[in-house]
């Protein structure tokens, strides 16, 4: 019997079991080298091969064209919130942001520290419970880029397709919480970034997929470490790369490939999320937070009839080996994060617990009564 429990954490989050098991061995001795992955030089042959393979598998998975670089950059998505405007938001220009949650707001805040920002749409008025529709988006006359957050981890909403952007304007996406959960047409974007710790690996490294012309267009006045150019020229080895994070990402890419690629991930994720949403739709005790049509397949947010019951739910679930279900502190309620590596059996176990909890507390007022 496994001593692991179901981990619904929003991130750092569950990783594929074979990857974790393999990493245990490779920490001791990787590729028969007699040295563990944590101890290898980032400039040695063993790591050179790891990073080359990671890039190769990443390119294969997402069908990344030759005019895009794949970069592994230390730091997190929050560093990308800053690097994006530092590189591209030059004086006199305006950057457009589609504001669909707290993470998008944080990206805006960093951009405002650098230059002029236009909020082309904001879901704040409806508490970020849905993605703005096309009619609600108003771009500025000539934005230097448009930034969006593909999946809103806190509210459990997700864009189902890229919004139209003005012709020739690069779309820049924070895909931290849904990267490689479904096929992605990289050519629709100028830059895609994601912190690793949800769908790709451990915290501390971000994946950046960037088109060559944006590397060229980036500011040359920044410290090198903050320029995409430096990371591209040095093939992610400008500084001592986050070797372990890159290694784990590489193993996750291999696992996705072996599991059938992004199409297969999308199918599995849709199936897992449907188990939860169907149950939410069928009853009146719990209430799903996101509006139908904007629902995330990665983070399923819901509440019980009262805040007290929310609290009780999360605590009792944890005692049953269903961990990490408490919603984000800014949203409350519950959140089940069911990224690529999260098993279907864990979703079924959650629904079984939800039914049981509902039976025990059915006399509570319907969730509709809650503000
Ligand atoms: N963007 C999104 C969509 C996120 O969910 C998060 C973290 N949960 C971040 C950015 C920030 O990531 P980090 O803390 O790694 O900078």
The CATH topology of the largest domain is given as Aspartate Aminotransferase, domain 2
Radius of gyration: 21 Å
- Class of the largest domain in CATH? Alpha Beta
Extended strand count: 14
How many structural domains are formed by the residues? Answer: 2
Helical region count? 10
Tell me the helix content: 25-40%
CATH fourth-tier homologous superfamily of the largest domain: Type I PLP-dependent aspartate aminotransferase-like (Major domain)
Mean pLDDT: 96
What is the spatial order of strands in the main beta sheet?
2-10-9-8-5-3-4
Sheet with most strands: 7 strands, mixed
- SSE succession: EHHEHEHEEEEEEEHHHHEEHEEH
Question: What general outline do the C-alpha atoms trace?
Answer: globular
CATH architecture of the largest domain: 3-Layer(aba) Sandwich
Between the first and last Cα atoms, what is the distance in angstroms?
A: 43 Å
Bound molecules: 4'-deoxy-4'-aminopyridoxal-5'-phosphate
| Class computed from helices, strands and strand pairing | alpha/beta
